[in-house]
Amino acid sequence: MTNRLTFETAQNYLDQQVDERSEEMMIMEDYARSTKFPIIGPVAGNFCYQIARMIGATSVFEMGSGYGYSTAWFARAVQENGGGVVHHVVWDVELSNKARLHLERLGYDDILKYHVSEAVETLENNQGPYDLIFNDIEKDAYPSSLEVIERSLKPGGVLIVDNMLLGGRILDQNDESSTVMGVRELTAQINASDRWIMSIVPIRDGLLLAYRVS
Ligand SMILES: C[S@@+](CC[C@H](N)C(=O)[O-])C[C@H]1O[C@@H](n2cnc3c(N)ncnc32)[C@H](O)[C@@H]1O
User: Fold this and answer.
1) Which among 19, 29, 76, 157 has the fewest CB atoms less than 10 Å away?
2) Which of 13, 15, 5, 76 is nearest to 40 (CA)?
3) pLDDT digits over 109-146, tens only?
4) Which ligand 1 atom is at minimum distance from the Cα of 118?
5) CATH homologous superfamily of 7-212
6) Shortest-distance atom of ligand 1 to CA 122
7) What is the C-alpha end-to-end distance of the chain, expressed in Å?
8) For 121-130, how does the pLDDT look when each residue is reduced to its tens digit (9 = 90+)?
């Protein structure tokens, strides 16, 4: 039998390499599956957790947190790093309430700060500086979010941005939708700046990992 390496087979293989999650995390994953809610999933979640552990992050600001699945990975890292703060920011009150239930059950309540508001504005009003910022807001707002992110991240801090591949739409030069243009512009901004060292990691929908040099 020939084993063909495709994007899909590679993702399935990566899925199998992630440790089993707690029952509460599996409930959150099941909910995403049944409602088609776009969480980052276990491979990207574990990657975010690993980065946060590696840099010893104790302050994390998350933009576009949904019902707290990605937040849980960051909160786990911060707790294991000795404690600190993770900001959960989403503009839907139902999602914020749902996140509180899950994250309380997971034992991260003392670490979490909840904001039901627009994420860029909230970051502007809650200047860190932070060790790590995770950006998963509407993609057309990515380019305009970078300025406040740069002001809010410590030198030596890390920015992670989701959906850099947009399910392959990023490859279509004829796609000039605001979503694709937003991702393209953010990628170009960070690539062109000597303040950042960046890579795009092809896990799931593509994670941009950027290290703030200065
Ligand atoms: C992709 S989902 C988040 C998934 C989450 N990061 C996870 O992996 O578990 C993005 C969420 O952020 C919200 N959102 C999008 N843009 C936002 C913004 N500018 N400010 C606040 N919330 C935003 C959306 O309504 C949605 O609930």
Assistant:
1) 19
2) 15
3) 999 999 999 999 999 999 899 999 999 999 999 999 99
4) 20
5) Vaccinia Virus protein VP39 (3.40.50.150)
6) 20
7) 50
8) 999 999 899 9
Q: What is the layout of strands, in order, in the sheet containing 130-135?
A: 112-116, 85-90, 59-63, 130-135, 153-161, 207-212, 196-201
pLDDT, position 193: 97
Distance (Å) of CA 193 to CA 29, 36, 142, 198, 214: 36, 35, 16, 10, 10
Return d(Cα 200, Cα 72) in angstroms, integer.
Answer: 23
1 pLDDT more than 70: no
Predicted confidence (pLDDT) per residue in 75-96, tens digit = 999 999 999 999 999 999 999 9
Q: What is the whole-number distance in angstroms between the Cα of residue 2 and the centre of ligand 1? A: 40
Amino acid at 56: G
- Whether a cis peptide bond, with omega within 30° of 0, leads into 143 is no
State pTM to two decimals: 0.97
Q: Read off the amino acid at residue 160.
A: I
